[in-house]
Amino acid sequence: MALSSENLRLTRRVLSLSRRRAMTCFAGVAVAAASLFGAAMPAVAATPPTLVVVILGSGGVTSQPAGIACPAKCTATFTTGTSVVLTAQPRNGSTFLRWSGPCSGAGACKVMVSSLTAVAAQFLAGRTTQPPPTAKYVAVPGPYSGSNGEGWGITFYVSRGGKSVENLSMPTTSESCTPSGNTNGSVGVLQVAIRPNGSFSTTTSENGVLNSSSVKITDTFTGQFQAATASAGASAAGTWRENIAYASGTTAACTSNTQSWKATLYTEPPWNKSVVKPGNYSGSNGEGWGITFSVAPGGASILNVSLPTTAESCIPSSNINTPFTLRAVAVQPNGSFTTSVSESGVINSYNARITYTFAGYFEGPTPSGPSTVAGAWRENVVFASGTTAMCTSNYQSWTATLQG
After folding, report:
1. How far apart are CA 187 and CA 219, in angstroms?
2. Which residue ranges form the domains of the chain, and what is each CATH number?
3. Residue 64 to residues 33, 76, 366: CA-CA distances in angstroms?
4. pLDDT digits 0-9 by tens, 342-359
5. Distance (Å, rounded) from C-alpha 57 to C-alpha 99?
6. Greater model confidence, 134 or 182
7. Residue with the larger pLDDT of the pair 47 and 253
8. Phi-psi region for residue 161, left (φ > 0), alpha (ψ -120 to 50) or beta?
9. CA-based Rg of the chain, rounded to a whole angstrom?
């Protein structure tokens, strides 16, 4: 199965959250990703050096010198060699947990910006007012599947207690463009909170690359859960919309318009103490290729994440295929995880700065297998020289199942 503005700027798009888009008139790639995770997503830029901030949870990040004021503005460019101090600001009773990327721990984050640099800030939710003892969350936990209203599928998972939608994925969507043309895209949301009455909504956006042009992709998703009745099982329905705005080129904008969706509960899983199960996992990276990793005994970390083949669209033109690998990713007690790391490398004989973002949620048993985990990933490549300035996969959704 398959991040919300307040909960994750990875995501959708940090979790929703998306797979490769292809224009009928020209080639391109999609976002989400991602739903741990809706959210503001990192922006892609060529030059000058760019700092990207990703937020997981309820909080904000500001910078000195000014430029970053996330979640309103999560991307800023600085003069090469600028020393930027980032400050985390918890919201809604949350607490700041840690930095990921060039900073670590929960102390001050000081970043030297000389190329594309990504920093993730993770917040833990604070105590919230519980509903009256007689109140009960309407959403029934478990895996849901159905139709996105265009004839394509939709899947997501409702967490234990019915308080959040996780790993929402619509692998295929259809958009019409102006002045002409059509495109197929995808929508992914890592996580969005469900209200006690069963309603939920999120709007997420990300900057990416499609058809060799910079774009801003905005997804809106709303829904309402219905408890089971004597004649029908638990279900959910609502609306979604995807808008794509181009920075340049012959295509100005594309949109799905507002579409309806509906899904039904497969079955409420038998709940164990933890949904994180050790072992070897394999599945799909959302682009039609594979993903593998293992979960260490005790379930505290994911090891050896491998996407042997990924696809990135580039500016000003062309595409590249590269591998995506991570040695280890910490798993939180609630089954969530997120990381963003960068490295220097060489691609096509040119020096490049490569940034990997990876996030998701573990689930209980689903129709896909006895223990499933899903989320979003993104790879950004910024070249130091050559005709290609930068490439990105945009956010993509992935899913994997415990083997054996």
Report:
1. 7
2. 279-402 (2.40.128)
3. 29, 11, 46
4. 999 999 999 999 999 999
5. 12
6. 182
7. 253
8. left
9. 20
